Amino acid sequence: MRAVILVLVGGALWGQPVPPPYNPAYAPLARAYEALRAHDYDAAIANFLKAAEAAPARASIRKDLAYVYIKVGENLLAREQFRHAMTLDPADTQVALEYAFLCNDTKQTAQARRIFDRLRKSGNATAERAFQAIDAPLAQGIERWKKAIEMGANNFSAHYELATLAEQRDDLALAAEHYEKAWRLRPERRYVLVDLGRVLKAAGQEVKANAALLAASRGGESRAAELARELLPDRYPYVPEFRSALELDPPNVGLRRELAFLLLQMNRKAEAEQELRALADPPVQDLLSIAQLGLLLYARGDRAEAMPLFQRVLDSDDEDLSNRVRDALHLPHRVVTAGSVESGNEAKAMAEKSLEAGYMKDALRYFEMALEEDPGDYTAMLQLGWTNNILHRDAQAFHWFDMARRSPDPKIALEAAHARDNLRESVETFRTTAWFYPMFSTRWRDQFGYAQVKTEIRTGLPIRPYLSLRFVGDTRETIGKTIPGVAPQYLSENAFIVGAGLRTIPWRGVTGWFEAGSSMSYLTGHMLPDYRGGISAARSVGRGLGGEGSGAFADSTLDAIFVSRFGDDSLVYSQSRFGYTLGPRAVRVQLYWNANATIDTRRQYWANFLETGPGLRFRADWMPPGMYVTTSLLRGVYLIDGENPRGPNFYDVRTGIWYAITR
Description:
48% of the residues lie in helices and 23% in strands. It is α+β, with helices and mostly antiparallel strands. The chain folds into 4 domains: 2-107, Tetratricopeptide repeat domain (Serine Threonine Protein Phosphatase 5, Tetratricopeptide repeat), CATH 1.25.40; 252-336, Serine Threonine Protein Phosphatase 5, Tetratricopeptide repeat (Alpha Horseshoe); 345-427, Serine Threonine Protein Phosphatase 5, Tetratricopeptide repeat (Alpha Horseshoe), CATH 1.25.40.10; 431-662, Beta Barrel (Porin). A 12-stranded antiparallel beta barrel has the order 1-2-3-4-5-6-7-8-9-10-11-12. The longest helix has 26 residues, at 125-150. The chain is globular and about 105 Å long. The protein starts with a helix and ends with a strand. The relative contact order is 0.04.
């Protein structure tokens, strides 16, 4: 939050570049500052990047670039520039604070806490407050979970939550202990091994860290394996590292098989044979290991022991592996057909192996075979959806998710429904949205209603056509209690507005639109042409109303609108809020401060004012998704007093209910 506020003073930090020949970054810096004055942030960013490349030791360039990134809402990029600047100039306390605040905003809590801790020890009061705001809840959470475990809550969630809080508080030993305990309770959750490896690595225990990461990278979740590989050294693991990983995760078939193959490559056949036997014997009975053990024994002349192993492979339904054995025995291949390949669970098992190895197209083929054998297999439908999604075949993925969401298994149905909804916008030709906003204003002593239903057509281009039906009305006009001069027309047109329009795909939060249609008054029946259009921009940072936790937030919208019905008037209005989100997901509240401004080109008194004051937004789980209640107490001042019958200032208590849906 502080990082956003400090943008307001960022201009003071933007000095002038030193002229050449002393400054190799002079030219791009000059262009960057010129672009800033023109509010051309893209050009400013491009030139700051060139300047940073020309003068990599200049911390001030990174610092100014970070502030520009904040202005355009790129907090992650801003965080990285502040990190560079802090590395170049460790004595710059302000840069370190900015970096820490952005770390906290972007969920790098542990790093934010470390920076605040370092700064507070030098007497920085801001860092002290920020540190306590992070550290106190972490300490309380750790004690709460410790007591829960002591009282018998020996389950995955308790250990994992305790480990997560301990990691954020830099208690790495406690975090490692409980990550491992959580994984032991739910070994199928391979991502916990990645967490364990990351914590051990941070604690300087490289051997144990690599063991955990190596175990996570072989077998199980493909996403966990990918994350683990990113943390492992950029080399192939050594034999002792494989053995350490197996000590941690003895049932890991893929890990042990890879060790066996590595030992074979190193001509350490006796050790390889020992590992293969562990995989060939019950309860594992890994076919690939059985085949490899048979080939090893056959090659050294031990055919009596090799043949029973070969027979186990030949009797299996794994046609590819069976044909490799036939090659070794100089036997003809069996013909592989879709009907002879794995059926049911066997086909799905092969598909899972293909996924694990990264062979997505093979996995797709096996899942399709499984579905051919059992057209009612909703698990295969769900997996077909995910596999197509990974292959960027969104239309096919949407189809299979749509099929799987009808599963009688609520877990499969819910997962498929969520995946389908996430893909909806990218694949559906038509997309309908609707929003409703009834509100009451003490300033106008009236209740207003605003609504729109809009259907867009997805064209594959950056511009989308749409059809729209709007409603704008109020209670006083409807019941005939008009007070002349009290409410401006723009608040209530008392009409249905039918129109067709075009809008652009949002780019960095900015959308343009234009609409033409007719306005039909529901009071008089009159119809008038209606042309309107504009540009809308929105930015938000921090913890939102539907986010995962409590914390500071800020959001802002800026709209510039032309409406022909208001005498070809154009209005610009800005609404900004900053405050704090608190409460659990079940009942979430935002307390904030409003800062709003409205102006128009025709200089009408009611369209030129500033207003500010406290506000509140509220939503709960029992409310439909997309609904929340809002109320604000505002104090305003008119910027134009001519023809103003109401005085220079006003108060307004404004309450409304927002509800939006998409189909």
